[in-house]
Design a protein that fits this description.
Elements (H helix, E strand, L loop, with lengths): L10 H7 L7 E4 L7 E4 L3 E5 L4 E5 L5 E4 L10 E7 L4 E6 L4 E4 L5 E4 L14 E7 L2 E6 L3 E5 L4 E6 L10 E7 L2 E6 L4 E5 L12 E4 L3 E7 L2 E6 L3 E5 L4 E6 L6 E5 L2 E5 L3 E5 L5 E6 L10 E7 L2 E6 L4 E5 L7 E2 L12 E3 L5 E4 L22 E5 L2 E5 L10 E6 L6 E8 L1 E6 L2 E6 L21 E8 L5 E5 L6 E4 L5 E4 L12 E6 L5 E5 L2 E6 L4 E5 L12 E6 L5 E5 L2 E5 L4 H4 L9 E4 L2 E4 L6 E6 L5 E5 L4 E4 L6 E5 L11 E6 L5 E6 L2 E6 L13 E3 L11 E4 L6 E6 L4 E6 L4 E4 L12 E8 L6 E8 L2
Antiparallel strand pairs: 1-57, 2-3, 3-4, 4-5, 6-7, 7-8, 8-9, 10-11, 11-12, 12-13, 14-15, 15-16, 16-17, 18-19, 19-20, 20-21, 22-23, 23-24, 24-25, 26-27, 27-28, 28-29, 30-31, 31-32, 32-33, 34-35, 35-36, 35-38, 36-37, 38-39, 39-40, 40-41, 42-43, 43-44, 44-45, 46-47, 47-48, 49-50, 51-52, 52-53, ...
Keywords: Signal
Pfam families: PorZ_N_b_propeller
InterPro entries: PorZ_N (IPR048954), Quinoprotein_ADH-like_sf (IPR011047), Secre_tail (IPR026444), WD40/YVTN_repeat-like_dom_sf (IPR015943)
Length: about 775
């Protein structure tokens, strides 16, 4: 699908002018899924899904590298560190190559991506260094890369008649380069040949389907898909060890040959005698699944699919240490909540058609719950969530932050108290008015709870998809009440998403058939949908937000609409939404035209942060007439343009973006208004000549009046706050930079009762 539209052509200038400042960003990546490992003489390197880390074997210091540092967010497929050149090579599934230089700078190499071949066969599988040249094994063949000049050399298409074939691994041995291919045997050529680009130079030594080839001492070995380890006898590869599982990784380091399967690591000496076997059942703390392994300085480092990097000694002490940096359970965070001092995260979810079976496999997933607290991640493991699957949204009791409710789009409503899941509301314990299972599929139980919100009296409202009574409330007396939502559509076809409650107590919730609104005082449901019934661009609504002016912002799969006031529920029989029209080069354009909008969040200055399915994040002004910022994978540390969820910490203004490939945050300055002026702060102070940013004034009341004057009382700036923070560009009403000196900041509440005076020194 295509989501770009003409109105955003002018954003090119915004992206070019964007100053990438990593200090404005924080990263929250998972380092649990290890794709590959590499090593130097004193350091192990590990690649997770789209980030790296390394650990010193001497100091135990751990260093991370991710999108904040300049890595792309794509999926890593291979990793190699050259000790001779002190450079780290990172290969990606799409053919991208990243070089991390000794000074930490990052070089992006797109030669493979730009090759005129099928884009589905550009994956980088392996790196092998020989005399300063790295042979890059790809899904189409082999490519040379010079580590001294940082330039690509020849490309070898080594299949029959020069065909593109999938090369899994290469190694240079006794004057020949050997290439293990996935479906076309093991092929070799004379490494000194000046014509390796000629496919006739590559002789097929053994037919078959191969996973890897490696040299150790005087031996050349290979593994195939029949789970056999083969040794080369000078003319062909002969099987000599049968493994019980498919080999996943084959490598040599420090005189040890390491073969990794899903449940075992086999280590052999140069004579190919096994010296150690490590089984997953020896690691009692977790149910590990191995992906790769290497040996450094008498230690074995094992990559796993879900438990990060694990190490143990070669003497088989069965003492295992977990090395991965602290992070969430997975990168694909589906829902977040940053409304308190902690960040809560769940890992999903459902697909675009609200099917929990197809989100991450073929059945509803079972993951734990993440909580970022005191600068580190704490995990409630999946074994403790009472079997709740497809966790989608997080709702925190505003009067008790230790009481958290997690919506499950398959199992009901999970209650967590003091970080311990203690109750799962479902059809078995909440009848007849609580969560219900869908009834139109015989002998199948699925309790699909999604949007949830607390009202002013402490009642918890939830949506229950695909049942007759789609709106329910858990009252403070722990009793349930339900409301029928089948007036507009067949309940079997109703899927609900977000739910918000306005100042009048009206419940607004999204669905695949438009926006629904309900207030129990009138007991009336109303709907906003397409055409004459509400003017939505699509009835498939994913998100809603009520801003500081009580407007309802509506995100659909085909664009944006705004309801002028939530009071329309009380006055209009049929509420109608409107598009936001902006002018671009004299032409009227619809804001967010045809965009698949996944989330809308309002910050303390009433600006809107809008997440999309494929186009990143937009920050627009309070009325939508200005696009203040746009973040994508090309101009920011966003690891993906596919945004699952956005939330804002109301105290700090930090904006969190949960994407399909990891979470990052932007240190915004728009905060929620305070109750008084006791905590007003001005920074930086003083403003020194080398500083080119703005002065921030935080801790304000909403709609506070701010006047800034020079020491003689001449007014240079005046504004009214929207939220708890304002910024001053140190100019006199935007005309010119003010001179050096002390400037007075006079702050007064909207009613004039509370006031505050601060000072700031400007040094030019």
């Amino acid at each position: 699908m295509k989501y770009f539209f003409p109105a955003f052509l002018f954003l090119i200038s915004i992206q070019i002018g964007f100053s990438q400042n990593s200090k404005s960003w924080n990263s929250y990546f998972s380092y649990n899924e290890i794709k590959d490992v590499s090593e130097s003489s004193d350091r192990v390197f590990a690649a997770s899904e789209n980030a790296l880390f390394s650990k010193s074997d001497i100091t135990n210091e751990i260093k991370t590298t991710n999108t904040i540092d300049g890595l792309p967010g794509q999926t890593i497929s291979a990793l190699y560190h050259s000790e001779k050149f002190n450079r780290t090579l990172v290969g990606y599934e799409n053919g991208l190559l990243i070089i991390i230089n000794p000074d930490g700078s990052i070089k992006t190499v797109v030669d493979i991506i730009n090759k005129q071949i099928n884009p589905t066969i550009k994956k980088i599988n392996h790196f092998h260094e020989h005399e300063g040249i790295v042979y890059v094994s790809c899904d189409f063949g082999v490519v040379q890369y010079n580590l001294a000049t940082l330039q690509f050399g020849d490309t070898y298409f080594i299949g029959d008649n020069g065909a593109e074939i999938k090369v899994m691994q290469t190694v240079v041995f006794n004057g020949f380069i050997y290439a293990a291919t996935a479906f076309s045997g093991i092929r070799r050529a004379n490494i000194l040949s000046e014509n390796l680009i000629d496919y006739n130079e590559w002789i097929n030594v053994n037919p078959g389907n191969w996973i890897g080839v490696e040299a150790i001492g005087i031996e050349l070995v290979a593994v195939n898909t029949s789970s056999n380890i083969h040794r080369f006898n000078g003319s062909s590869f002969q099987p000599f060890i049968q493994l019980f599982q498919l080999p996943l990784d084959l490598r040599e380091n420090e005189g040890s040959l390491v073969v990794t399967t899903q449940n075992q690591v086999h280590i052999y000496n140069p004579q190919l005698a096994q010296t150690l076997q490590i089984n997953t059942n020896q690691i009692t703390e977790v149910q590990a699944v191995f992906t790769c392994a290497t040996v450094i300085n008498g230690k074995v480092y094992i990559g796993t699919k879900e438990n990060g990097l694990i190490t143990t000694s070669l003497n088989n002490s069965f003492a295992f240490e977990f090395l991965s940096p602290n992070g969430p359970e997975r990168n694909a965070i589906f829902g977040i909540n940053a409304s308190t001092e902690n960040i809560w995260a769940v890992f999903g979810g459902y697909d675009a058609s609200y099917d929990p079976h197809l989100y991450s496999g073929f059945e509803p997933n079972l993951f734990g719950v993440g909580k970022f607290t005191e600068s580190k991640w704490f995990s409630i493991p999946k074994e403790d969530v009472l079997g709740a699957k497809s966790l989608s949204k997080i709702t925190i009791n505003p009067t008790n932050p230790n009481e958290v409710y997690i919506s499950s789009y398959h199992s009901g409503l999970l209650k967590i108290e003091n970080d311990i899941p203690n109750y799962l509301y479902d059809q078995t314990n909440s009848a007849p008015n609580g969560p219900e299972t869908l009834t139109f599929v015989p002998n199948y139980t699925s309790v699909r709870i999604n949007g949830a919100a607390f009202d002013k009296t402490g009642n918890l409202w939830i949506t229950n998809s695909m049942v007759l009574n789609g709106l329910k409330v858990l009252k403070t007396n722990n009793q349930w009440q339900r409301f029928e939502t089948d007036d507009f559509e067949d309940p079997e076809d109703l899927y609900y998403d977000q739910l918000v409650i306005d100042k009048n107590g009206t419940k607004w919730f999204t669905s695949n058939h438009g926006i629904m609104a309900f207030n129990e005082t009138t007991n009336v449901f109303k709907r906003i949908t397409e055409g004459d019934e509400g003017n939505l661009p699509s009835r498939l609504t994913r998100t809603i937000a009520i801003d500081n002016r009580n407007q309802l912002w509506i995100g659909t799969t085909k664009g944006l609409r705004v309801l002028s006031s939530v009071d329309r529920y009380n006055s209009d029989e049929q509420m109608t939404s409107n598009a936001i029209i902006i002018m671009e080069e004299g032409v009227a354009q619809e804001l967010m035209y045809e965009q698949f909008i996944t989330d809308i969040v309002v910050d303390g200055a009433n600006n809107k942060w809008i997440g999309t399915a494929e186009s990143g994040v937009f920050q627009v002004s309070s009325n939508g007439q200005q696009i203040l910022q746009r973040f994508t994978i090309t101009n920011s540390p966003l690891p993906s343009n596919s945004i699952n969820d956005i939330d804002i910490n109301p105290i700090t203004g930090e904006v969190f973006f949960a994407t399909t490939k990891g979470m990052v945050s932007f240190k915004g300055f728009s905060t929620t208004g305070n109750d008084n002026l006791q905590n007003v702060k001005v920074y930086p102070n003083p403003v020194r000549p080398e500083y080119y940013g703005t002065v921030k004034i935080t801790g304000l009341l909403d709609k506070a009046r701010i006047k800034i004057t020079d020491i003689e009382g001449n007014l240079v700036h005046e504004t009214v706050s929207e939220g708890g923070t304002i910024e001053w560009d140190t100019t006199a009403f935007g005309k010119y930079k003010v001179a050096s000196g002390v400037y007075m900041i006079f702050i007064s509440a909207q009613d004039g009762i509370e006031t505050k005076v601060k000072k700031v020194m400007i040094i030019r």
